[in-house]
């Protein structure tokens, strides 16, 4: 069995309770069968959240982009397409936390680990260009460009927890994006 790994600052429970919170569970099969549902879900949730901001139109784009990226990745890389993917949102006033939790295979988590090490150690602009070039040459479905863009363009804090489960090759993967609420309001 492999060991748990954490990339980025994956803080535990918040000191204060959130001002706003929700959690939604999705079955990957439902979203894969109709892929546009990921975008529709992200837009709906972003609209719901954005009205808590002084400038909802500014917040809408960032929130929809982040939610869509996290949801699509969790659905696409889930090991069991019938096992729920969980998307949660917490608004703490100054901070917004959006997180997905799903189960992935060991092979997926190893590739994700390698990508996250690069994301944490390389210049973000250089990595962005390198990923575009690599994707053009390989035509792979796991480009990493969405996560790079979230960090690069939305000034987000990306943190990932990968924990092996008791059964087989499965790993619980939690991907958390933390955003500064003031920056979201001005994006």
Any chance you could write out the topology, listing elements then pairs?
Layout: E1 5-7, E2 20-26, H1 28-33, H2 36-50, H3 56-76, E3 85-91, E4 95-104, H4 106-121, H5 124-138, H6 145-154, E5 157-164, E6 171-180, H7 181-186
Antiparallel strand pairs: 1-5, 2-3, 3-4, 4-6, 5-6
Helix pairs in contact: 2-3, 3-6, 5-6
Can you tell me about this structure?
The structure is a single chain. This protein has a six-stranded antiparallel beta sheet with strand order 1-5-6-4-3-2. The chain has one domain (5-186): Heat Shock Protein 90 (2-Layer Sandwich), CATH 3.30.565.10. The chain is built from seven helices and six strands, in the order ββαααββαααββα. The protein has 187 residues and is α+β, with helices and mostly antiparallel strands.
> What is the domain total for the residues?
1
Radius of gyration: 16 Å
> What strand order characterises the main sheet?
1-5-6-4-3-2
CATH top level label:
Alpha Beta
Helix content: 40-55%
CATH architecture: 2-Layer Sandwich
Could you write a compact summary of the structure shown?
The protein is α+β, with helices and mostly antiparallel strands. The chain contains seven helices and six strands; from the N terminus they run ββαααββαααββα. The model has no long low-confidence stretch (mean pLDDT 90).
Keywords:
single chain; about 190 residues; alpha+beta; Heat Shock Protein 90; six-stranded antiparallel β-sheet; 7 helices; about 25% strand; globular
């Amino acid at each position: 069995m492999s060991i748990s790994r954490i990339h980025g600052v994956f803080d535990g429970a918040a000191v204060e309770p959130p001002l706003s919170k929700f959690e939604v569970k999705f079955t990957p099969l439902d979203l894969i069968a109709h892929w546009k549902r990921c975008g529709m879900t992200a837009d709906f949730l972003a609209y719901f959240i954005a009205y808590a901001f002084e400038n909802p139109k500014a917040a809408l784009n960032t929130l929809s982009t982040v939610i869509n990226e996290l949801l699509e990745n969790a659905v696409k890389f889930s090991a069991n397409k019938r096992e729920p993917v969980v998307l949660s949102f917490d608004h703490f006033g100054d901070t917004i936390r959006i997180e997905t939790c799903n189960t992935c295979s060991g092979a997926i988590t190893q590739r994700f680990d390698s990508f996250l090490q690069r994301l944490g150690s390389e210049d973000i602009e250089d990595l962005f260009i390198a990923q575009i070039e690599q994707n053009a040459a390989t035509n792979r479905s796991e480009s990493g460009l969405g996560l790079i863009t979230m960090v690069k363009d939305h000034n987000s804090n990306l943190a990932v927890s990968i924990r092996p489960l008791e059964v087989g090759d499965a790993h619980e993967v939690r991907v958390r994006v933390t955003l500064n609420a003031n920056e979201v309001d001005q994006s």
